[in-house]
Design brief:
The protein has 249 residues and is an alpha/beta fold. The protein has a single domain, classed as Alpha/Beta hydrolase fold, catalytic domain (Rossmann fold, 3-Layer(aba) Sandwich). 37% of the residues lie in helices and 20% in strands. The protein contains nine helices and eight strands. It has an eight-stranded mixed sheet, with helices on both faces. α1 packs across α9, α2 packs across α3 and α4 crosses α5. The protein is globular.
């Protein structure tokens, strides 16, 4: 079982789910338009050995929407705020897609709070097709919606999407303008990189470039997975996390 809790961070109600009671903690960060439940398989499975926390970033899921459009630095402060609220000194930080960018930003501002990183289907810069996204969200264009589903590689998204269409577009516009390419070379903590064999958004070669940059990293590519490897191949993904984490917990 898991529990939903709320922390007050910078005056905002930030919601998250948590399970397990171990001192060792792993935190999961969703991508654009996602929510904590996207990590439910990992939260439940790993809670037998770790304390697990999956956060609804501000404006997504059940978390309060801020008055201005946030970027990765704001989302990173959500993670730090929940860690402080829960009394977590340091944790393994896991992020997918935009959540991986948030994890990189968190490393930049609070390296001492990170025990290790697990970054999947991500890149220091992610290009987002705003025109396609606008058609899918605002115009409800079925062809655009189908194209996005194909690019993400999963139809199991209905209950995992959150955030208003306009908010998602504003966040997408802001995040895609961010360049975090200066961060990976600084990383010295153990890092697991997970890619999807069929991911067209952050393809395996981009993860390979990240692997070459992060000297302390291990690269794993999940066969048959697209951009949402933790949802499409949850068992394979979680087993990679277990293998990685068992080395230092």
């Amino acid at each position: 079982m898991y529990e939903r809790r709320v922390a007050i961070i910078e005056g905002l109600r930030i919601s998250y789910i948590t399970a397990g009671s171990s001192y060792n903690t792993i935190i999961f960060i969703h991508g654009l338009g996602g929510r904590a439940e996207a990590w439910l398989y990992q939260v439940k499975t790993l809670s037998t050995m770790l304390r697990t926390i999956a956060i609804d970033l501000r404006g997504f899921g059940m978390s309060e929407r801020p008055p201005t459009t946030p970027g990765t630095i704001d989302f990173a402060r959500d993670i730090l705020g929940v860690m402080d609220w829960e009394g977590v000194d340091a944790a393994v930080i896991t992020g997918s897609s935009m959540g991986g960018m948030v994890a990189l930003r968190l490393y930049e501002i609070a390296e001492d709070r990170i025990r290790a990183l697990a970054l999947s289907n991500t890149s220091p810069r992610i290009k987002i097709n705003l025109t396609l996204l606008r058609k899918a969200l605002l115009e409800e264009d079925r062809d655009a919606q189908a194209r996005i589903v194909r690019r993400l590689g999963s139809r199991r998204l209905a209950g995992l999407l959150s955030g208003s269409p306009h908010y998602i577009l504003r966040v997408a516009d802001k995040v895609q303008a961010e360049d975090l390419t200066h961060i990976p070379a600084r990383i010295t903590k153990p890092t697991l990189l997970i890619g999807g064999e069929l991911d067209p958004i952050t393809p395996p070669h981009e993860l390979a470039n990240l692997h070459r940059t992060i000297q302390s990293s291990t690269l794993k590519i999940i066969s048959g997975a697209g951009h949402l490897a933790h949802i499409q191949k949850p068992r394979e993904y979680t087993n990679l996390l277990i293998e990685f984490i068992s080395k230092f917990t």
